[in-house]
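User: Could you go from structure to sequence for me? I need the amino acid at each position, not a summary. Structure tokens:
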């Protein structure tokens, strides 16, 4: 099977590249072995919240020069401010076309989202059902908040969140209450707490009769509040619509808060991207795994997968976006780190004793977080020092950045995925023009 572009990995980096390629009319295939990191994410898009030095960033796109100075090999330093901004704006527009509305603050500052612990994390884009707490005054416009959970639900403990919120000076004058609501038909549901997760609750609340009953209980439990905060327990694709309906039934302003995995807010992004990609005509091979490939004359010619052992897949261009250790895009042995599919060159790891900070909750990055595949400025990797010109890397497999400490995870994944797609599209257009000119010349002779 022959494609224009083959993308290895179905996370936000791989899917961003695949969608952009498919939009440009390229015959594209995505091979995704398993769940992506989106199933664990807040569903907000972090661009840059902290510099590597630990200094907080308020305006992410204005901080690129400082970032490049501190971390010259950082993926953002390779792409530059303009290309990253273009990629993030493209992503926002593309998701809007899919019905997922992501927005930033009008003043171009990061905003804060509240976590299930009642702490705040800075981010760039949040979904329409997530309350954006502005940096200048976290509690702006709020005199009362209600933190609500469901009876028997273990993944959000509102009292803990309320205690932490109450400690913040910005919330000194805000009334914070907690409440527990019983899910309709709770008595008939399985009593094993492992089976009472956000995704199970979302299935119950998709039924409108049960949503109406839930709305009544919510009104009784909360009374009055400027903002009602609920864990993300509303459907994958239709979550935002369900919340709108619930707001209409209760008269409350309701916001969602990401929970322990499975995170419905993250899954919502993945589902929307996958379905958009398929509508564009892209091929998605899920549950398959790329095992290796043939490299000839500095180019990757074909790859082999677990399910299509003897049928090689070939393409003009390839992207590897298999994620970090978490998604098995990188693997660690006792004294070295590997990229398991092709054995791509890695950033030289220091001695094992220097892979991590002595304190787990250190403000400094754990060095292993910045390990990964090393690339040139076009994001081409190499093997034993030889560049592979038609293979690109994007997302968490890349070295030289720490998505957790910097708060840059989805931002790097989207911008590198998009940047690679733009290069593939240009190369493809160039080769088509070349072929056309050659055939015109032949015809003229
Ligand atoms: C717990 C957690 C929470 C996070 N929260 C946030 C957040 O709130 N906001 C934010 O901006 N960022 C967040 N991040 C960071 C961000 O989610 C990641 O940096 C980003 O999603 C990485 O995307 P990716 O596409 O590079 O990799 P992944 O999402 O890891 O996807 C890799 C894909 O490759 C597939 N794969 C691996 N090996 C193979 C193979 N051999 N063949 C085929 N497929 C393969 C995997 O199955 C997976 O589908 C979080 C990360 C984690 C781990």
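Assistant: Here is the amino acid at each position, in order:
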């Amino acid at each position: 099977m022959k494609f224009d572009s083959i993308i290895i990995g179905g996370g936000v980096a791989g899917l961003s590249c695949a969608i952009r390629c498919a939009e440009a009319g390229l015959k594209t295939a995505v091979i995704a072995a398993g769940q992506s990191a989106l199933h664990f994410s807040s569903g907000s898009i972090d661009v840059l919240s902290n510099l590597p030095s630990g200094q907080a960033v308020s305006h992410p796109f204005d901080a690129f020069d400082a970032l490049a100075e501190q971390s010259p090999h950082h993926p953002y330093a390779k792409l530059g401010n303009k290309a990253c901004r273009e990629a993030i704006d493209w992503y926002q527009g593309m998701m809007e076309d899919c019905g997922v509305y992501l927005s930033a603050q009008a003043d171009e500052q990061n905003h804060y989202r509240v976590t299930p612990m009642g702490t705040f994390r800075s981010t760039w884009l949040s979904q329409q059902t997530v309350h954006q707490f502005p940096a200048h005054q976290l509690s702006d416009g709020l005199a009362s908040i209600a933190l609500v959970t469901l009876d028997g639900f273990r993944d959000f403990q509102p009292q803990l969140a309320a205690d932490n919120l109450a400690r913040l000076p910005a919330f000194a004058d805000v009334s914070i209450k907690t409440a527990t609501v019983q899910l309709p038909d709770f008595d008939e549901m399985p009593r094993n707490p492992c089976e009472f997760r956000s995704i199970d609750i979302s299935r119950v609340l998709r039924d409108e009769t049960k949503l109406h009953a839930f709305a009544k209980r919510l009104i009784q439990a909360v009374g009055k509040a400027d903002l009602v905060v609920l864990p993300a327990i509303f459907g994958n694709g239709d979550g935002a619509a369900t919340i709108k309906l619930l707001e209409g039934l209760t008269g409350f302003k309701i916001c969602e808060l990401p929970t322990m995995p499975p995170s419905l807010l993250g899954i919502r992004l993945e589902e929307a991207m996958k379905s958009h990609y398929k509508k564009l005509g892209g091929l998605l091979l899920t549950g398959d795994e790329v095992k290796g490939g043939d490299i000839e004359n500095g180019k990757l010619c074909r790859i082999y997968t677990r399910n299509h052992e003897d049928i090689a897949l070939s393409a003009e261009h390839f992207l590897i976006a298999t994620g970090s250790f978490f998604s098995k895009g990188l693997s660690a042995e006792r004294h070295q780190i590997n990229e398991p599919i092709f054995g791509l060159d890695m950033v030289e790891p220091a001695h094992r004793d220097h892979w991590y900070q002595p304190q787990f909750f250190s403000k400094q990055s754990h060095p292993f977080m910045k390990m990964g595949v090393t690339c040139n400025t076009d994001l081409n990797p190499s093997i034993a020092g030889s560049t592979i010109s038609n293979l690109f890397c994007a997302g968490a497999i890349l070295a030289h950045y720490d998505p957790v400490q910097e708060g840059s995870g989805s931002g790097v994944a989207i911008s590198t995925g998009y940047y690679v797609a733009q290069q593939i599209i240009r190369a493809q257009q160039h080769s088509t023009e070349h072929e056309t000119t050659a055939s015109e010349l032949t015809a003229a002779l």
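One structural detail worth keeping in mind: The pocket of flavin-adenine dinucleotide is lined by residues 8-14, 31-34, 36-38, 40-42, 44-46, 289-290, 321-323, 326-329, 341, 395-396, 403, 409-410, 413 (CB under 6 Å).
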